[in-house]
Amino acid sequence: MRKQLCDALVGRAARSDMVFLTGDLGFMALEPLQQILGQRFINAGVAEQNMMSVAAGLAAQDLDVWVYSIAPFCYARPFEQIRNDIAFHDLPVKLIGNGGGYGYGVMGPTHHAIEDYGVLLSLPNMSVFIPTFDQDMDAVIARTGASRHPVYLRMGRGEPPKGYAVPVYAPWRQLTEGDGPVVIVVGPLAGTYIETFERMPQEFRPNLWVVAELPLELNPLPTNLIAQSEQASGLCVIEEHVRHGGFASDLLLHFAERGITVRNFRHLYARAHHFDRYGSQSYLRKASGLDVDSLLVTLGGI
Questions:
Q1: pTM of the model
Q2: Do both 15 and 140 map to the same domain?
Q3: What is the mean pLDDT of each run of 10 residues along the chain (302 residues)?
Q4: Which of 52, 72, 118, 188 sees the fewest Cβ atoms within 10 Å?
Q5: How many domains does the chain have?
Q6: 270 and 217 in one domain?
């Protein structure tokens, strides 16, 4: 999604108040943005804590501030500065973390971002955008830029089937329809299930939904998703994020507070930081049971 990110930000760069900071990353991708912003494109170096404090100071001067890094260096290393300097002061700094989930697979747990949105959503005033497809980026940048509060944008890579007609961006989208269980996925992982689900008979085909904006209090569930969840044989939530603090917990609390009941709940999630060996993002997803075959086994039980 980096090219689409760059294109969307270039389109925004006509604003004289826009400032972009990078933690010495973005080479071979963000050069067009650097050229158009000139001195307003700042390489802060490998100094993420300082970068966040600088971003907070710039935002306090009513500038349009965007900060970019590999996801774990965007939220984990400078967490105290995000908490104290940005979130506590409700400053509209836009944090862009590339490679959410197991995106940087072979580089190991230091480069994985599988607790990112759970951590950041524990802070006041924070919201999270998790685009599903490359084509979402224009809308996501527009919506992110319109926020007057801190935002974390978790980037991955769009993974729809070849030739798939990507639906217009929305916080909630239904990607497949059927009479089977309800499956809710956070972000790009949803694209990996579409082709398999579309081949399934109507009576077994899941209602596949993807959510791209958190927390739920800002983006309530569509009424037809609630109805499907109550009527279906089961509900499965899938996220490339650890169990604790993840979307599933927020969803079940949301249901409990509103008296919404579901049958046969299942949760698939990023199961570990440490594995015996490391491989691609797909390899680590399979190790966590997030691949299509593992999902089909789970759905067969509900």
A1: 0.95
A2: yes
A3: 92 94 82 93 94 98 97 96 98 97 93 97 98 96 97 95 95 97 97 97 97 94 96 96 96 95 96 91 96 95 88
A4: 118
A5: 2
A6: yes
